[in-house]
Every structure is written in structure tokens, then in C-alpha cells.
Amino acid sequence: MKPECLENRKGSAFTLIELLIVVAIISILSSIAVPNFLEAQTRAKVSRVKADMASMGTALEVYAIDHNNYPYRRNPDWNNENIAPIIAPPLSTKMNDLKVLTTPIPYITRIPNDIFDIHVPPPLNTINYFDPEQTSLLSKRFAEREFYVDEDGNQQYKYKDTGARYWMLLSVGPDGFIGVQDNGQPGGYPPQPPLLYLTITWVYDPTEGTISMGNIYRLQGNADFYQALDITKFGQEEDDEQGED
Predict the structure, then answer these.
(1) 77 vs 240: CA distance, rounded Å
(2) CA within 20 to 30 Å of 41's CA: 164, 175, 202, 212, which one?
(3) C-alpha distances out from residue 210 to 4, 64, 118, 219, Å
């Protein structure tokens, strides 16, 4: 005859099937909860970046009142008409270009970090800034080009000056990359996956997925990125043509 304590212990133990059911339920709940948590975390980061951009935008406007101009941040070849417009300022000069906002007069206490920019080491992982001339270069590069016939009868094209002159703040967004050129440059920007080439013209849109491609922008006067720069989302032309076919 078995002791009564052993019989009670045997009766209260979980069977293997019951344990497997519990594990399956926990896995299902985790698969539901974890993505929701990550999405909520991303939304909170987006809100923080936009708030930091608003503060930085205020600092730029106050600086302009004092100096009658906005801080200089553009590519050194910005006025070289013999090369294609370079669409982003050098990464290496970012802190030197932006220090005028913090010293000697603190228009802002510090340049906010870009919480999504995990591929660039501190202190260069701050929110990026394009001065009005650099934003104009971006607009020229992606705007519709002007075609003409030269004196030899050959068809040529030139980059159209859209007249866009806005300062612009940029966060790389949840995809983590600025989306510059296919060689991962210019100015020392880190190489990026081919899928993200030239996505600098993509505005982050949470309706396409909380963690989706595109940058977060704030333009002078809260102008719309596409309308102000007179450009379309890179690759959109091809999509539209395929849709028409």
C-alpha cells in the first residue's frame, strides 16, 4: 500500500500534454504581445524625434533672427555646376556645423540625438540638418530635368532649379538609414542595404507599417516635403508606369 502523501502528489502533478498546452498558450500570447510592444515603442520614438525636431526648429529660427541667416551646413561642392547635385552634406562636419546653435549662445542646450540612428557612432548620431542651399540641391537632383538641344544638335539635360530654399531637419527613421546613394556615401555615411538606396526621398509613413522605410522630416514653416521640394518619391514613377500598363 502506497503512502497517502505520494498518492496526493501523483494526483496533483501536470501531465506532459498539459505542460505542452501551457507552453503553446504562452507562445501564442507572446507572439501577440511582443509585436504590439515593439510597435508602441517605435511610435513613442517617432513622437520623441518629432518633439526634438520642433525644439531644434525653434532654435534655428531664433538664430536666424540674431544673424539674419541660418546656420551653414552643405556639401563643399554645392555650387559646382560640373557635377550632379550632391544630395546630402558631409557626416563628418555635422557637429562642427551645428555647434553654432549651442555656443557661444545656447539657442538650444544640446543637439538632440537621432534615436533611430544606431549605425553612426556618437557624437555624430544627432538629428541631421540641411541648410536652405543644401535642400535646394536635393530638390534639383530629384526634380524633373530640363532637356535641350546643344549647338551640335545633341539632346542634353540640366538639373532644374526648383527655387526650393528651406532649412530641413532629418531623422533616419525606423529603418535606420538616411537613404543616400548606391555607394553608401556621400561624406562618410555608412554603407546600407541595396533595398534602401536613394530612399532619402521617402517620407516615413506609419500607415505603410510602423517599422517601414523612409526618413522623418521637418521643413521650415512645416512645409510638405514633396510639395516644397517639387519632387516625387524615388521609384514612384516606375510604379505609376507599371500601374498604367
Answers:
(1) 33
(2) 202
(3) 58, 35, 17, 22
Residues 114-166 have pLDDT tens digits of 999 999 889 999 999 999 999 999 999 888 777 888 888 888 878 888 889 99
CA distance 4 to 87: 81
CA 45/CA 88 separation, integer angstroms: 24
Q: How far is CA 182 from CA 113, 129, 142, 179, 239, in A?
A: 25, 21, 15, 9, 20
- CB distance 169 to 56 below 8 Å: yes
User: Is residue 208 within 8 Å of residue 228, measured between CB atoms?
Assistant: no
Query: CA torsion sign, 99 to 187 to 181 to 159?
Result: positive
**Length in residues, the chain:** 245
Alpha-carbon gap, residue 202 to 236, rounded angstroms: 10
Residue with cell 518629432: 50
Bridging pattern class, strands 128-130 and 168-171: antiparallel
Contact 42, 66 (CB under 8 A): no
Q: Which residues of 8-30 are buried (b: 16+ CB within 10 A; e: fewer)?
A: eeeeeeeeeeeeeeeeeeeeeee
Lowest mean pLDDT among 12-16, 76-80, 131-135, 198-202: 12-16
Look up cell 506609419; give the residue: 206
Domain locations in the chain as residue ranges: 13-244
Q: Specify the pTM.
A: 0.80
Determine how many CB atoms are found less than 10 A away from the CB of residue 50. 13
CB atoms under 10 Å from CB of 88, counted, come to 23
25 grid coordinates: 498558450
